[in-house]
């Protein structure tokens, strides 16, 4: 008499019910744990690769800049490189601008006061634009009636350059911080508004229907469905608006402002100090870059792993 042999299906069922889904490797680390670390490792590797790709470009530009000044190159548009300082001269000025001890003039060690004043103006103008443009954009994106009422007027005002507003602003507001903040607000408002409208209008109706079928009340669909779906477009508009805010800052601080990066550049232009002008430009670029990264990080902390515009 032979002993009955269990079938393959019976062994499989027993294994599934009795054995763990994934057995830990001999080293004691589970496969799930290793898989969870893979995205972070890949992310760090991608960040390092991005920095490696980005570093050579500024190095090449610095080399060409040095060669152009030494060779007195004349570039298209009649740009005379002989009139520019070398990168080493700008570096020395930038250090003196920040910490002093090199030139020992009126601008030595004043960078942080200028940067702080400019940052406050950008934050005020950008914050006011965000507080008004995002809610208005959501309303215009959801209501066709409101959109038809406001869209022609907005598109009539939007093409007017902020630089054209500057003389009128000085007359109706006057010199000082408020006129600069108003110009920054104008520069940031329209790109943020248009991106918010577009993001809200592009939310698929099927998504709203699906949320309704899953029990989401109509009164809650705005902040549970519409706003989360529109976040990538809104964030994209915020990044563009923040960049424009730093661009317009120099225009706003040109007249009637004594402390600020734009004011420092204007004073340097009056004294024909090209090294200080370029140092101020570099600081504005770095400040705008840092502001964009901080904005992206803040939004990422709020929305978690939801995809964002890059």
From TrEMBL:
<keyword id="KW-0813">Transport</keyword>
<feature type="transmembrane region" description="Helical">
    <location>
        <begin position="276"/>
        <end position="303"/>
    </location>
</feature>
<feature type="transmembrane region" description="Helical">
    <location>
        <begin position="153"/>
        <end position="175"/>
    </location>
</feature>
<feature type="region of interest" description="Disordered">
    <location>
        <begin position="1"/>
        <end position="44"/>
    </location>
</feature>
<keyword id="KW-1003">Cell membrane</keyword>
<feature type="transmembrane region" description="Helical">
    <location>
        <begin position="244"/>
        <end position="264"/>
    </location>
</feature>
<keyword id="KW-0812">Transmembrane</keyword>
<dbReference type="GO" id="GO:0005886">
    <property type="term" value="C:plasma membrane"/>
</dbReference>
<dbReference type="InterPro" id="IPR000515">
    <property type="entry name" value="MetI-like"/>
</dbReference>
<feature type="compositionally biased region" description="Polar residues">
    <location>
        <begin position="1"/>
        <end position="11"/>
    </location>
</feature>
<dbReference type="InterPro" id="IPR035906">
    <property type="entry name" value="MetI-like_sf"/>
</dbReference>
<feature type="transmembrane region" description="Helical">
    <location>
        <begin position="50"/>
        <end position="68"/>
    </location>
</feature>
<keyword id="KW-0472">Membrane</keyword>
<dbReference type="GO" id="GO:0042918">
    <property type="term" value="P:alkanesulfonate transmembrane transport"/>
</dbReference>
<feature type="transmembrane region" description="Helical">
    <location>
        <begin position="122"/>
        <end position="141"/>
    </location>
</feature>
<feature type="transmembrane region" description="Helical">
    <location>
        <begin position="181"/>
        <end position="200"/>
    </location>
</feature>
<comment type="similarity">
    <text>Belongs to the binding-protein-dependent transport system permease family.</text>
</comment>
<protein>
    <submittedName>
        <fullName>NitT/TauT family transport system permease protein</fullName>
    </submittedName>
</protein>
<feature type="domain" description="ABC transmembrane type-1">
    <location>
        <begin position="115"/>
        <end position="295"/>
    </location>
</feature>
<keyword id="KW-1133">Transmembrane helix</keyword>
<dbReference type="Pfam" id="PF00528">
    <property type="entry name" value="BPD_transp_1"/>
</dbReference>
């Amino acid at each position: 008499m032979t002993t009955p042999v269990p079938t393959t299906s019976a062994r499989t069922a027993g294994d599934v019910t009795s054995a763990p889904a994934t057995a830990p490797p001999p080293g004691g680390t589970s496969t799930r744990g290793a898989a969870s670390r893979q995205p972070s490792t890949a992310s760090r590797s991608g960040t390092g690769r991005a920095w490696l790709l980005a570093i050579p470009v500024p190095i090449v530009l610095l080399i060409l800049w040095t060669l152009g000044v030494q060779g007195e190159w004349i570039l298209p548009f009649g740009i005379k490189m002989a009139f520019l300082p070398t990168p080493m001269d700008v570096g020395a000025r930038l250090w003196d601008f920040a910490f002093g001890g090199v030139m020992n003039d009126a601008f030595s060690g004043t960078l942080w006061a200028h940067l702080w004043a400019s940052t406050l103006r950008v934050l005020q103008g950008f914050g006011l634009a965000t507080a008004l443009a995002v809610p208005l954009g959501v309303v215009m994106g959801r209501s066709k009636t409101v959109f038809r009422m406001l869209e022609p007027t907005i598109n009539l005002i939007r093409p007017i350059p902020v630089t054209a507003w500057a003389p009128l602003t000085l007359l109706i507001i006057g010199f000082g911080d408020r006129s600069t903040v108003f110009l920054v607000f104008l520069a940031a408002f329209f790109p943020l508004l248009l991106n918010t409208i577009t993001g809200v209008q592009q939310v698929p109706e099927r998504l709203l229907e699906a949320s309704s079928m899953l029990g989401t009340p109509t009164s809650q669909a705005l902040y549970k469905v519409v706003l989360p779906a529109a976040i990538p477009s809104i964030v994209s508009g915020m990044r563009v608006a923040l960049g424009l805010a730093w661009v317009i800052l120099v225009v706003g601080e040109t007249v009637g402002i004594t402390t600020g990066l734009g004011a420092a550049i204007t004073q340097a232009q009056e004294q024909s100090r090209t090294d200080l002008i370029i140092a101020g430009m570099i600081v504005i670029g770095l400040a705008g870059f840092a502001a964009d990264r901080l904005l992206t990080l803040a939004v990422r902390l709020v929305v978690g792993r939801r995809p964002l515009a890059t």
